[in-house]
Amino acid sequence: MADVAQRVTTVRHVPPLSWRDRMLSWRDGVLSNARFQHFAGSFALTRPIARQRASALFDLCAGFVYSQVLQACVQLGLFETLSRGPLGADELATRLSLPPSSMRLLLDAAVSLRLLQTRSGGRYGLGPLGAALLGNPGVVAMIRHHAMLYDDLKDPLALLRHESGAGQLARYWPYAGTKAPADLTGADVSPYTALMAQSQPMISAQVLAAFSFAGHRCLLDVGGGNGAFLSAVAAKYPELRCVLFDLPAVAAQASQRFQREGLAARARAVGGSFLGDSLPQGADIISLVRILHDHDDDHVMTLLRAVHDALPAGGMLLIAEPLSGTRGGEAIADAYFAFYLLAMGSGRPRSFERLQAMLSQAGFADIALKPAGMPMLTCVITARKMSSVVDTSHVN
User: How far is Cα 226 from Cα 256, in angstroms, rounded to an integer?
Assistant: First the structure.
């Protein structure tokens, strides 16, 4: 009987399909039917919808090619060159060292993607997207950086199956794969610190528009890089004292920045690792700007508990990062950041509800999602430390 019992397979109860599930299954069958596709493409009322979906599907197929057109424009400095005025294809070919035929091919491709526009006399000028890039050097820096991501994604199934090993991104973000991040040197951390600093102005502007630091005495920015975010906050709130906590090699760069910008009297940098060191005391508000999504759940809980311990009763935590499930930005968090962090080897995007549960477990209350101007870029969450300690067991 025991042998028979061991061979018995437990059948998991599967709930019946909901009415919505059945309707969506019917829809899928209709949309995948070749005869319906032909009808929808030829019938006047459904033709616009069919064309729109066909175009969206083709954009998914061609997306890598589009990104390489953008990459080529950035690497050539094409947008900077045209910012001084429209130029013809032959002159651009000479200036940028491309064969004339290749230059025209790239220019026309960039026009189709609204990066450039045709101008009078056969010349080319900036398009709306190309002009926007000129005002966002952090985006340009990320585009250059994406060459490593593209290499890591050349075999997406190997990445998903964890068969490809550490790729270029994992080596670029050294803290993601080391057991002793505090031992990293200045040479180890300089590339990623510089990249984050270039994109920080966009994030800082969003946070400062969504949240006021007025009324706070001291801000502790954990994982603050070379101090770009603290510098932006300090410039707007001259009475606020600021402390930065990051790996020792990174904190050294922040100290140099504070000296250069005349902030040394009210801004200091402390080196350490939140995985093994206590956070500096004395701040009544602590910020985590693009930090949590870089780490796995166990490290996030370690950090949130450390923040809770460092804050006084009633102290505030501010989190700024893209969130999974953000309306209008679903693809950014759930596709782009999800695969970027997978290639990096650490972290994942999380929804507000997920972070809310983790914050509650760490002892925080009054957890709120603040309106942000560009939530697809970053969202802002605030929470307060409760006066009494709650259960801080691991979040499932």
Answer: 8
